[in-house]
Amino acid sequence: ACETGGVEGFFGPPWTYTARRSMIGFMAESGFDTYIYAPKEDPYHRIEWRRPYPRDEWTLLLETIRSCSESGVDFVWAVSPGLSIRYSSDDDFEVLCAKFEKIVEQGVRSFALFLDDIPNELVHKVDKKRFKTLAGAHVFLANRLWARLKKASRAARLWFCPTDYATAVSTPYLEEIGRGMAPEIGIFWTGPKVVSTSITAADARAIGRALKRKPLLWDNYPVNDYNRHKINMGPLMARDAKLPGLLAGYFANPMNEAYASRIPLLTAARYLEDPAGYEPAAALRAAVRRVVGSKWEKDILDFCDAWPAAMFDGEPPSGLEREVEAARAGRPAALKKRLDRLAALRPKILEVPELQPFVADVRPYLKELAFYAEAARAALDDGKSIDDLKAAVAKAETSESHPMRKALRELIAERMR
Question: Whole-model pTM above 0.85?
Answer without folding.
Answer: yes
